[in-house]
Amino acid sequence: MTSPLATPISLPNGSVLANRLCKSAMTEGLADKFDLPTPALMQLYKTWSQGGTGLHITGNVMVDRRYLERAGNVVLEDDKNLELFRTWAKQGTTGGNHLWVQLNHPGRQCPKMVSTEPLSPSDVQLAMLGNFARPRPMDQSNIEEVIQRFITSAQLVKQAGFTGVQIHCAHGYLLSQFLSPKINQRQDQWGGSLENRARIIRRIIVGVRAAVGADFPIGVKLNSADFQKGGFSLEDCITVASWLGEDGVDLLEISGGTYEQLSLIGVEPTDVRESTRKREAYFIEYAERIKQSAKIPVMITGGFRSRDVMERAIESGEVDVIGLARPLCTEPDCSTKLIQQTIQSIDCYEDKLVLGTGFWGNNSPSNLIKAINSFGQVGFYYWQIIRLSKGLPPEPQLGTFKAFLRHMTNDFKLNIKRKFG
Fold this sequence. Notes:
The protein is an alpha/beta fold. It has 2 domains: 4-347, TIM Barrel (Alpha-Beta Barrel); 348-421, no CATH class. 36% of the residues lie in helices and 12% in strands. It contains 13 helices and 14 strands. The strands form 3 sheets. An 8-stranded parallel beta barrel has the order 3-4-7-10-11-12-13-14, surrounded by 5 helices. Helix 9 links the parallel strand 13 and strand 14. Helix 1 (39-49) crosses helix 12 (366-389), helix 3 (140-159) packs parallel to helix 6 and helix 12 (366-389) crosses helix 13 (400-420). Mean pLDDT is 88; it is low at 261-279 and 356-364.
């Protein structure tokens, strides 16, 4: 029997995805010191393109080089080096897949090494390891500038030959910050009611659609919830999803969490029932209600590991596209294997990447262990990305502590290289 994962899907604008699998965005950290695409980044996406995944979404491409999610982000804010982006688009579609650029602005989630005065709707500081400065509340001109930057960058994405664009409105970045009543404490037209908090996103979507035309796919990545008291809720998500459908979005990707609540990488499981797919597909319990509200195709990213769960999710209509991220770091051709039904499950390295108390002895500093486990898991997959970008095979035997050290060292080097050359 042919796998449901092999079924093509037509998006509202008429674009067709070859199958139901998507490489969801992961930050790559492979830009040069001028924030431009490198041969390593192109090699990475060429490798992924040949792995059978129907849709690929790039990691954070920033709309303003003054504010990055991390050093090593690509920035696309003008056409000065558009030929590099054209090469990236060409290399990343050699397998016949779609390649969409994820556009983002970090807002307050901009490390101090990049900016000591980040922007945010309000001056609510991100309290995390002292790595983020108190943000400057945006004024009207800042907001209008950000809106125009997203529109301009989307135009450039199309000019460069990419096949679509995704606007990042999740994971605690700037547009997610506007949605959160915990962070957005404004009393003007950009804060207060959900309609006001979503205004900037809707302005961006409408502006991007006008700029790129009706036949160019626009996606949005949205939190199902922040999973924080007083934050963006599931009910908020359902309402915003309906507005995005009205505004002409072609694919809605649902994820969740923020830097402060790491549901986005599965480090702290969300409040879905334990029985739900044995903790696979973290956000699938919310998909049906969101789909009904949005009336557009919905993709769920987070936790999918077994083929049976993926196939049942597609067959049942719970979701339209399955988002995969980390598994493509250790098995870049896993999509082909899933579609051909030659494997039953994919990458489950997270369970092995956890340091127990025995690593430190009886007096283990639990907070330190939690930090090393979290950043060690992240570092493990970053290291696989680096290896793939060099044309090397993955290194799944890399341990948590070594991955943690490599990740921290690499990020420090990226910051120094960008700052001092």
